[in-house]
Structure formats: structure tokens, C-alpha cells
Amino acid sequence: MTKIPDTDRDLIEQAMYLPMLIIVLEKDKNIIEKSPFKLKGPYINLIEKTLQDVRKELRDVKNRMRSSNIKVQETKRDKDFTTFTFFYKGYEEDHNYFNPRLRNKVNELLEYYLYKRYNF
């Protein structure tokens, strides 16, 4: 049984997912820069603005975690699962996440940061 309240767990999961989202956006930006698009500028600008916003959010999450004495660390990764160790106010807990679940969550965040947050 976990000793971590839901609000703090959400914060920890943000600290897990946002770096993954940054990696996806950076890779996509590199692909677009090398692609034969006629007008790359708008796509690159959208990704750069999104990266800026995600990095700011990650900085805020890390500051809140530091002030609450919370840390998260990826400890193991295999084909199916990724294990993260949560350090929460003197306690240490290992949590396994199914890799497709991680990918789906990052996909949700990508959709949110690219367009859903603008309430179209």
C-alpha cells in the first residue's frame, strides 16, 4: 500500500511524463527540420513554443517536489515495464509502469500541449 497521497502522486507522475514529452518533441522537431516540407517554419515554431511551455511546467513541478522533499528516479527498464523509485518524505517505493501506458499518457500530453489547452 502506498503512503503517497493522490495529489503528490500526480506531481510525481508529471515529473516522469514531462521529460518523455520533451524527448518526443525534440525528436519530432529534428525530423521536421530534415524533412522536405515547403514551409517548415510554422511547424517548428509550434514545437518550439510547446517545448518552452513544457520545460516551464517541468521546472515548476521540480520546484514543488523539491520543496516537498519528493524525488523520482527511473531504476529499471525492459521490453514491457519501466520501474520508477519514488522517494517521498523519507519513504522509498518502487512502482512498475506498463510501457504502453507510458506511451499513451505521453500521447495524451502531446495532444494537450499542442492544441487541446487552447480550447478549440
Automatic annotation (TrEMBL):
Keywords: Coiled coil. InterPro entries: YhjD-like. Residues 44-78 form a coiled coil. This is YhjD.
